[in-house]
Design a protein that fits this description.
It is a single chain. With 296 residues, this protein is α+β, with helices and mostly antiparallel strands. The protein has 2 domains: 140 residues, Gcn5-related N-acetyltransferase (GNAT) (Aminopeptidase), CATH 3.40.630; 138 residues, Gcn5-related N-acetyltransferase (GNAT) (Aminopeptidase). Helix content is 25%, strand content 33%. The protein has 7 helices and 12 strands. β8 and β9 form a beta hairpin. α2 crosses α3. The chain starts with 11 loop residues before the first helix and ends with a strand.
Length: 296
């Protein structure tokens, strides 16, 4: 695995921390490919999502499976063998719907090791994996766009931001609890920062976002990154400029902390979010595709 959205290299202790030690990890879902000499050629990691992702429930939904990650170098034959093995294991374990590439609620797999600010499918930089999952019967169901903001540039400005600031107040909260259990599990290894906007008049929530340090992704290029997730604006305050204000405050916060890039992902079908990131000066730097297979 290579690229700016893959933690490389990562140590065996990090693999233990981010993958093997997770409460949902199943040893039989980690399938290795080895050659005749016993040398490893790659692996596929399969698993299941939570039955109730928005609640503090650890029961797994075994009808909903994922081929979470395929690591095979550039060998298309190894990729195809691993995907087939992963599909077969998930079917034998009861999966009725199988996804290739993690995405909520299958997203804690490899969070912090693969995918950038979120784990949202198979990165475009691994064409042999895309080919393998398509040959195995999976079809594309969603695409995520990866953006970065270069924090050496000035923060974006807008004339309405000053007006909105007078009508609202900001909170910066570190390691703020309250996320659903499944999301908390994904983030537990990171020092998170929550940015919140509330009405100055009655303290009613307006917008919020979460930041987390992507420290494992700067090893190949020496660029420090912060990930941006859970960007949300209350429905009654949308289309008023609060989304733009929230992102501006996130950019300012991350720049003051000394990071060089702010990373975020959005669904390619979300045209409004896509346009907003581009207007604010975010650069499109990659994409990831999610695949789905219904088991007959």
């Amino acid at each position: 695995m290579r690229g700016p959205f893959v933690a490389s290299p990562f140590s065996s202790s990090e693999f233990e921390q981010f993958v093997l030690s997770r409460p949902y990890f199943e040893a039989n879902g980690l399938i290795l490919a080895i050659d005749e000499s016993g040398a490893a050629l790659g692996f596929v990691h399969c698993g299941f999502g939570p039955a109730e992702p928005e609640k503090n429930c650890w029961k797994l939904d075994r009808a909903l499976g994922t081929v979470a990650l395929i690591c095979c170098g550039d060998d298309a034959d190894v990729a195809a063998t691993l995907v087939s093995a992963g599909r077969a294991w998930l079917e034998s374990s009861g999966a009725k719907v199988i996804y290739a590439g993690g995405r909520s609620p299958l997203n804690p797999f490899y969070w912090g090791l693969y995918g950038g600010s979120e784990f949202s499918g198979i990165l475009a930089g691994t064409p042999q994996v895309h080919e393998a999952v398509q040959k195995c019967g999976f079809r594309k169901v969603a695409e995520s766009v990866l953006y970065e903001f270069d924090l050496t540039r000035p923060e974006p400005r807008h004339v309405n931001n000053a007006i909105l600031r007078r009508e609202s107040k900001f909170s910066v909260l570190e390691d703020e609890p309250g996320c659903p259990a499944w999301t908390s599990l994904a983030l537990e290894s990171f020092h998170t920062i929550s940015i919140r906007i509330a009405a100055r008049s009655d303290n009613a929530p307006i917008a919020a976002a979460t930041l987390w340090p992507m420290s494992l992704y700067g090893r190949s290029d020496g660029v420090s990154r912060m990930g941006l997730i859970d960007v949300f604006v209350e429905s009654s305050h949308r289309r008023k400029g609060y989304g733009r204000l929230l992102l501006t405050e996130c950019i300012k916060c991350v720049a003051e902390l000394g990071f060089r890039r702010l990373c975020v992902q959005t669904d390619a079908a979300n045209q409004a979010a896509d346009a907003m990131y581009q207007r604010l000066g975010f650069d499109r730097v990659g994409s990831a595709t999610l695949y789905r297979l219904e088991v007959s």
